[in-house]
From TrEMBL:
Cofactor note: Binds 1 FAD per subunit.
One Gene Ontology term from the biological process aspect of the record: 2-oxoglutarate metabolic process
GO molecular function: dihydrolipoyl dehydrogenase (NADH) activity; flavin adenine dinucleotide binding
Native organism: Ruania alba
Disulfide bonds: C41-C46
Residues the entry annotates as binding FAD: K50, G116, T145, G146, S147, D308
The organism's place on the tree of life at top rank: Bacteria
Names of required cofactors: FAD
Keywords in alphabetical order: FAD, Flavoprotein, NAD, Nucleotide-binding
Name of this chain's protein: Dihydrolipoamide dehydrogenase
Length: 472
């Protein structure tokens, strides 16, 4: 039995951050990884997907500025597929984790390669290529095993692509059907359209159902205008792959049939907690893990669950935020120090509840933080919603000819603070952090009038939103 202060299972971005945080706090840490150090985000999610999207986004942006030399009729698709894929491959380091392993070594984090499983209080067995090893933690075990794509039963017989195949593909299918209109669905519809595939997006409800409705409508409309066959309110009931040609035939509940060369299941995630020994803490394998705000698994004093696996916010930046809180809480508890687990305390991931930022890098982008108008009303806040057309802002008009987009601010009228903001339009991603600061800081509306946006930037929409709301 080898012993460390903290044992982390899963070396995705989140596990790495937990381990880094506890080592910085003076504890020893070992991390157990069954695939690639760096996890989903580095090799099959954020990085390759954004790399696939970037070239098309640049070409689109140029096509919307007269005189750039790129004409609207020329974009999409991108000019050079193989260059896009090659650029994507540099961001995944060719699916080689040597660079991340060097980071672990330089940070003083030990690595055991293999599959980890809880065997008792603070003990983990790792199945390696050479057999099993037993590890023990003095203070805490942290589960950071992430999530896998959830494939609906109706699609499973056709062995669909998941986000892994979509982000690592070396060939672009001529016809790609995508099932699911969440973030993966719209981002991959945008990327594969830009790469020249004929894309059909099959959505059982609305596009981007978690966002403000105008955002999903704008994305659906733009995808349609640029050649994507977007069908909403439709469910796939059967999927069959032809054994000879490899083509996939999808039958839908409205009687339509879609034939494609490949189908992508973009239908959400399931926890990677199969067979990891959760009975040790009275839980069942295969469950999402409920945690308190310091990421401690409910009812346990030593087991933490951080990142996707706790299902609080399935985003890299939010998982890393949780990792900083949990890592520092583990260090404080190990040293017998107090833990600031009150709302917005140093050891509490309070922002997970009502202040999560997210950008969908679709065409156009959707950037949001905090509560939508509907979520704020459901939560019982007294709400006033303020909308402003981004195209009327001078900076946006300069940014792109015919700029189309909308900004929404959701205000708590009792406290006069902002509960949520959504921007939908070209290149809005970088606008988001100002909104995040306003929401997390609960900056009073009357003080925001003194935060002057530079002229002529798209950020001037802040002033327009305030003017529309009226000075309190
Ligand atoms: C297509 C796609 C695009 C995305 N884009 C973005 C984006 O742009 N921005 C964003 O913020 N988020 C994005 N996300 C979400 C983001 O990828 C996840 O939130 C993030 O990867 C979660 O990190 P994690 O460390 O919790 O889990 P993971 O990255 O999944 O890491 C878990 C690690 O644990 C290992 N593991 C699992 N079980 C065991 C075991 N028993 N023993 C040992 N090791 C184990 C796995 O091999 C893996 O390396 C995207 C997701 C997808 C699918
Ligand atoms: N840019 C980003 O931040 C980014 C990009 C991609 C993914 N992610 C994260 O990864 C996670 C997974 O993304 P996702 O798009 O797979 O999940 P999601 O939950 O965002 O969307 C899944 C969609 O599939 C639909 N769906 C579920 N089951 C279905 C079925 N049987 N048939 C038809 N439709 C079905 C749902 O209604 C939903 O609209 C998300 O939590 C997301 O936040 C983030």
């Amino acid at each position: 039995m080898s012993t460390w202060d903290v044992l982390v299972i899963g070396a995705g971005a989140v596990g790495e951050n937990v381990a880094g945080q506890v080592v910085a706090g003076g504890l020893s840490a070992v991390i157990v990884e069954s695939e690639l150090v760096g996890g989903e985000c580095s090799y099959w999610a954020c990085m390759p997907s954004k790399a696939l999207l970037r070239s098309g986004a640049v070409r689109r942006a140029a096509a919307h500025v007269r005189g750039s030399g790129v004409h609207q009729a020329e974009a999409p698709p991108v000019v050079d597929r193989s260059e896009v894929l090659a650029r994507r491959n540099t961001f995944t380091s060719g699916w080689d984790d040597a660079g991340q392993v060097t980071w672990l070594e330089n940070t003083g984090i030990d690595l055991v390669r293999g599959r980890g499983r809880l065997t008792g209080e603070r003990t983990v067995e790792v199945t390696t290529t050479d057999g099993t090893v037993q590890l023990e933690a003095r203070h805490a075990v942290v589960i950071c095993t992430g999530s896998d794509a959830a494939v609906p039963a109706a699609l499973a017989p056709a062995a669909p692509w998941t986000s892994r195949e979509a982000t690592s593909a070396e060939e672009i299918p001529e016809r790609l059907a995508i099932v699911g209109g969440g973030v993966v669905g719209v981002e991959m519809a945008t990327a594969y359209r830009d790469l020249g595939a004929a894309v059909t997006l099959l959505v059982r409800g609305r596009v981007l159902p978690g966002a403000e409705p105008f955002a999903g409508d704008l994305v659906a409309g733009t995808l349609r205008e640029t050649g994507v066959d977007v069908r909403t309110g439709v469910s796939v009931t059967e999927a069959v792959r032809d054994a000879v040609t490899g083509t996939v035939r999808l039958s839908c509940d409205d009687g339509q049939v879609v034939v494609a060369d490949e189908v992508l299941a973009a239908t959400g995630r399931r926890p990677r907690t199969d067979d990891i020994g959760l009975s040790v803490v009275g839980r069942s394998d295969g469950e999402w893990l409920d945690v308190d705000d310091t990421m401690r698994v409910s009812g346990s004093g030593w087991l933490y669950a951080v990142g996707d696996v706790n299902h609080r916010a399935l985003l890299t930046h939010q998982g890393k935020y949780q990792a900083r809180a949990a890592g520092d809480a583990i260090v404080a508890r190990a040293h017998g120090q107090g833990v600031a687990d009150h709302a917005w305390g140093a050891h509490a991931a309070t922002a997970d509840h009502e202040a999560v930022p997210q950008v969908a890098f679709s065409d156009p982008e959707v950037a949001s933080v905090g509560l939508t108008a509907a979520a704020a009303e459901d939560a019982g806040y007294p709400v006033r919603v303020v909308d402003y057309e981004l195209g009327s802002v001078a900076g946006a008009a300069l940014h792109a000819d015919g700029y189309t987009g909308t900004a929404r601010m959701v205000v708590d009228t009792e406290r006069q603070v902002i509960l949520g903001v959504t921007f939908a339009g070209p290149d809005v991603a970088e606008l988001l952090h100002a909104a995040t600061i306003a929401v997390v800081g609960q900056v009073p509306i009357d003080r925001l009038w003194h935060a002057v946006p530079s002229y002529p930037t798209i950020s001037e929409v802040w002033l327009r939103l305030l003017e529309t709301y009226g000075r309190p």
